[in-house]
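Troubleshooting: if your tokenizer reports a length mismatch, compare your output against this known-good record of 228 residues.
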Amino acid sequence: VHNAFNRATTIHGISNLLVEHCVTYNVKGLSFFIEDGVEENNIVQYNLAVYTRQSSSLLNPDITPAAFWIVNPNNVIRHNTAAGGTHFGFWYRNLAHPDGPSETNSYSTNRVPLGEFRNNTAHSLGWYGIWIFSMAGYFPSNGTQVGGYCDYDNEIRAKFEDFTAWRCERGAEVVFGGNIQFDGFKVLDNEKSGLDFVEVKGPLGTGSDGPGANNSVVIGHSELTEDS
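Known-good structure output:
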């Protein structure tokens, strides 16, 4: 899909879908778009999004678009690359409840477990390689309602794995959330920061016991930058 004025792939109200081996180039708005928040168990893998750029004539998120825009974490996002763009490579925008045509208050989008995020790459993005942000935050749990108004039990860890971010404004950032962990990240030549945790809440400890970064490498300025 190339030179599109209205996105490339929209997964809307659909679960158990496979999207793989797709290439997008010069797309306005969100290139790979998981939309309302009820969508689960979709697999998005081996895709390449080149130059995802903003649009002021679609939805508000398209003004600051991501190549891969995910509103329900319980999906599989692996082996993808966001190569160049005005804003984000990957954006997890986990609202408290689904919106749009799938709007409901009986389901908490920001409390579901992480399906899989592994072996993805973002480079040359105007803003962030990956951004995990919504006003509701992301507090992963086992996804089991124990009663009441979206009363989910047993908070668990969400491990984002093996991500590479190169030459973005920021490599990876969690703004507000629970037990979220970056594991095996490689971030280099990002302008302002490599890894950011603004406000995370979870069990205190080391290693696999709480939120943070493990087994990761942060390089401020590499020879690649010096040679360019």
